[in-house]
Recover the amino acids of this structure.
């Protein structure tokens, strides 16, 4: 009986309490114009910025009782080269730890958000 209650909790109530969020808030800079943009990227949807196709696969924010940290798994495809130029985890507290190296655009994670 206890196992059944735990199972019901994790598959019905738990998704609403999950730390997996709906949007990744990204800072994007176009170096040619010098403009900075704040983008809200939905999870598992492609968004075009400049010549890049951005897709966030996963975005997570630590609970309040822990150090504030956001991290996301992102895939970046160059439209002109037609290949993935970055795929991996990015961290809001350490943008240089795992960053996109691109001659025209800079991209880093700001936070993860709910709709």
């Amino acid at each position: 009986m206890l196992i059944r209650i735990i199972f019901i909790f994790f598959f019905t109530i738990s998704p609403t309490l999950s730390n997996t969020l709906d949007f990744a808030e990204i800072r994007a800079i176009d170096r040619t114009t010098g403009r900075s943009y704040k983008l809200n990227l939905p999870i598992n949807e492609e968004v075009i910025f400049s010549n890049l196709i951005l897709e966030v696969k996963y975005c997570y924010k630590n609970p309040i009782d822990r150090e504030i940290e956001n991290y996301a798994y992102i895939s970046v495809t160059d439209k002109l080269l037609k290949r993935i130029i970055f795929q991996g985890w990015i961290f809001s507290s350490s943008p240089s730890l795992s960053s996109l190296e691109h001659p025209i655009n800079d991209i880093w994670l700001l936070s993860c958000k709910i709709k």
